[in-house]
Each structure stands twice: as structure tokens, then as C-alpha cells.
Amino acid sequence: MSRAAAWVTLLLLAVAERGRARFTFRLQVSSPGTPEGSLVPTPVLLKSRSSGGTGSPPALPEASGLALASDPGGSLNFLAMVDNLQGDSGRGYYLELLLGTPPQKLNILVDTGSSNFAVSGVPNTDLTSYFDTKKSTTYKSLNFEVAVKYTQGSVQWQGILGLAYSTLAKPSSSVETFFDSIVNQAKIPDVFSLQMCGASLPVSGTGTNGGSLVLGGIEPSLYKGKIWYTPIKKEWYYQVEILKFEVGGQNLNLDCKEYNSDKAIVDSGTTLLRLPEKVFNAVVGAITQTSLIQEFTSGFWSGTQLACWDKSENPWTLFPKISIYLRDVNSSQSFRITILPQLYIQPILGIGQNLACYRFGISSSSSALVIGATVMEGFNVIFDRAQKRVGFALSICAELHGSPVSEIEGPFTTTDVAATCISTISLHEPILWIVSYTLMSFCGLVLLILIILLLIPPRCRHRYADGDTINDESSLACIVVPTHPFKLRRMAAW
Description:
The protein is an alpha+beta fold.
């Protein structure tokens, strides 16, 4: 997972500005279109409120992506956003952003699995550059801390552009997210689409592969065929409903709730296809049964070891296709997205002269099923927030030697699956906090009662004589209380 880890000093820009800054964006804006999402790109020129300046806006350093710069007296320009991403399967995809006045260029990870727009604000040994607040004339500190925790990964980017819903925003959902701010200020459609073009290409970590982030609509030239839509089940992450899994055309035959435990999301900030442990084990078992591969060590499946072949061989022919069935917007139907081995058996550069080595692009997850870059690289993915749906269409860059490495088919009937595959009980983070506070409150009450009992004078306590009978009505259950109450509170919070 390439998302930056927690505990990095970050400047949370959505908190600091909340619509007060005026920026210059180089974006693709599309007008609303048909239900199939065939939006026609239309350049739009919008004027920001003038601050009295009459001259032309200052020239900006060239950046290949989304150009952000303070422009108090200028305009907001929306231009084509094709090929504005860089990156690869191993680390994710990023934009080059120009931030502040004078502009500072930063690489910002595009992350549909979080909601804050944040950049590194202090030096770090893992980062080549950061946003230097001392060099910005428009930076203003609000003097409070905001903590954003990411699930796992390492510090690889100079910032993160969170494109999920404000429900996940820190310190609270009242924070206006970056994309919400653009939609509200620029009046663009509440839609964005993402194309990631690293399919079948080596995971080099050099950011040489490209892609496109289109804000405000869909660019028809980036996909082919029909767009298939699945409903967004809850507006926090982009949570979807998965109905079935197939490996080599064979159904795993698991309870469909296993695929959605505790949620299934579409997340560009996750580099792999992550599966709940039971699903992961079933997929690995099905691959070993249906493929022609030789015996592998467990290290290959767990991601700790690479598998290598002679460069003249083609290992992809040894592995099966993997299909994921998603519920259609018509709930009685489904469609399936299929990835070929070229997407989940991923080549790695720099391992020997005669050998080509590969990693397994699927990993086990302790909780959610995450459709990450391993799958997304096969499709142009549309996040249609206006109509609460996520769309998938074949990406024009998901090809190897002219042959596609992904497929999409439908519709299929849903009579063979449950009416809902999403469990009504899900241990999401807010519920865990409620449970923790409840446990702490209970423990505090127990301690208070014990203290009161200890303070009661001895004469008020009943002493049993030898002839007294102790029965269910006169006895109490013993409660073992730790001698260190702080440990009890920490355990409850955890």
C-alpha cells in the first residue's frame, strides 16, 4: 500500500483555507451528459472575485498535472487533463501540484480512500522536498493540530489528495474537502474519473507510467465500450457491493457477505487487490488448483518473495483470470470485471540479467476488501457522486502488445445470491470508539463501587456465622480488577 503512513507532519490545506483561497486549476471540465456518462469535454473559463489587481497573473513554473497557485487578481482556467498523472503499480499515481505564492512544486498522491488534502510541512529523510511555509507569503497557520491515520505504508509522497467523502475528513466531517470545494466554487458536476496506465508494466518506482485524473466529468477518449455502474452503498469511502468471485471461471462459492467484510471499497491509494483472509486463502487455493504453475513457497503468496523465470518465458500463461461480480444499479442484475494475470502477476525491474522476477499483486487484509491499483489499472473508473455510483469501463491503456489485459461483461442475474451481501453489523471506527468509551465508563463505575465499599465502616458489613447458608440470593459474583487501573483503561480503549 503506497499511501503515506501516519504520524508525518502534514499541513491540512482543506482546514486552513476552506474556500477562502483563490487558486488556478488546470482541469478537464465536462458538461452533464446522458445516463451512460458520455460527457463531452467543454473548456470553461470562470472569473474569481477581483482584489483590485489589473495586471496579468504571474507566470507559474511548469507542472504536468494539476497546477495550484494563489492568484488573487486572476482567473480560474480549466483545460484538458489527459495524461496528467505519473506513477506505477508499486507506489501509486500522483499529480504535480504548484502550491502557494511563490509556487512550490510537490508530488501529490491521488487517493480515493481518504478525504484530507495534506502536504508534508517539515523535512524528512524519506522525502526529497516539502512545502516550506517560510517561503510562502500566503500561508497562514491556524495553530491547531489535526491527526490523520492511514492504514499502512511508508512515506513516499510529498502529499496526499484525498478524494473520498467529507465523512472521513479530519478533524471532523464539517471540513470541506478539496473536491467539494471545487464543485461548490467552480460549479462543475460532482463527478471525477481516474485512469491509471501501469498495466503489465514493470514496477520500477520511477513514476514513468502515466494516467489521467479528470475532475468534473468523463473523457470519452480514455475508455472504450460501455460504462457499467454499481451503486455506492455508503458515502464515506467509495463502498460497493461484491456478489461473487471467480478464479479461472470457477465460482469460489463463499457466502457473499465474506466479500464485503467489513466493507468493500474502491481505493486508488492502495497498490494491491486486498482480500479478507478467508477470501484471500480461497483465491490462492483456487489459483494453485486451476493453474499450471509449479509449487510455490508461501512467501510468494504473502508478498515476501518474488518468483523468477528466464526472460524468454511468459509466466502469465500459467495463471488464470480473476473475476469480480458487482451489483448493477438495477439490483436484480450484476456485471463482472475481470483481470488477466498480467495485472496481478506484476513484473519487477532490476533483478538479475537473465531472469525476470514477479510479485503477487494480491494480499490478505485483516478487514476490508479493497479494489486497489492492481484492478483499477484495467479500467477507467468513474466516481459519479452526483448519482451515487461507481462506473467501470475498459481503459484504452490496459493492453499489452495490442491485447487487452482486462474484461468487463454483463448483465447477469442475481437470483443465485442473497438480496444483500452487506452485513448490517460492521465494526467501523466510530462504533469502535463508542464501544471503547462504554467499556471505560463501565470500568470506572466498577472502580467507584469498589472504592465506596472499601470506605464503608466495618460495622455495616454483614459477617456470616458458621451456620448461615450462602445461596444464590445472598452471594455475589467475584470481579477480578487489575491492580493498575491505568492498564485497564488502556485495554478498554484499544
